[in-house]
């Protein structure tokens, strides 16, 4: 697979229709090294774990979903909300020798039951609904740049939190870095209960980032995601940063035939 070409998705008239248009903003990303054996049961058929310098990662990600439109229609009271997810990274080689680098979600948390239901129904993603909140403070020296961002979710009567503190202005990701690896995945893959796999495309420009001065995860990882994750998703992450985000398009998914084109 090393000789295949990694391709960022480009729009074409043959692309599946957009399912969702939105803005993803202020993405807190805490990235942890993990034993690949933990993730193997979650890897969709036709894909394989994607690694950076031989290391396998999971990421705790929190962000704002803004100006959301489903099939071109804004849904009243469901346009702006938080999301927190635990995700990992895979890749798939097509018959044309293209490498598609993608994301698999272990679980995604949103505050709206209707959103969770729709995502489970249409994409078979493991969405759950919980009370959520967020807090954002901005820098005095850079008034448009965030100084701290915190996403909260209430699980089993206790507030959990994902927090990051930054300083200075945003910078571009550098080619070949861990930050680029984490942010530059443009496909989503879902493993269905019958063993089949769905693939969908996510389109957005490259994001800029603020590196973390400090960060924290206060979460009952074992109860929320499973005890196999608890020894890895804790303490100081391998890396942490805040991405500015952008407009995004999530296109209609399609089921792969035996993991191939």
Q: What report would you give on this structure?
A:
The chain is mainly beta and 261 residues long. The chain has a domain at 5-9 and 16-130 and 171-207 and 234-253: Beta Barrel (Acetoacetate decarboxylase-like). Helix content is 11%, strand content 50%. It is built from five helices and 17 strands. It has helices at 36-39, 113-123, 178-183, 221-225, 227-230, and strands at residues 5-6, 18-33, 48-49, 57-70, 73-74, 81-93, 98-110, 127-129, 132-138, 146-155, 158-166, 171-172, 187-191, 197-203, 208-218, 239-251, 254-255. Strands 2-4-6-7-13-14-16 form a seven-stranded mixed barrel. Strand 9 (132-138) and strand 10 form a beta hairpin. The longest helix is centred in the middle third of the chain and has 11 residues, at 113-123. It is globular, with a radius of gyration of 18 Å.
Question: Concise description?
Answer:
This protein is mainly β. The chain has helices at residues 36-39, 113-123, 178-183, 221-225, 227-230; strands at 5-6, 18-33, 48-49, 57-70, 73-74, 81-93, 98-110, 127-129, 132-138, 146-155, 158-166, 171-172, 187-191, 197-203, 208-218, 239-251, 254-255. The chain has a domain at 5-9 and 16-130 and 171-207 and 234-253: Acetoacetate decarboxylase-like (Beta Barrel), CATH 2.40.400.
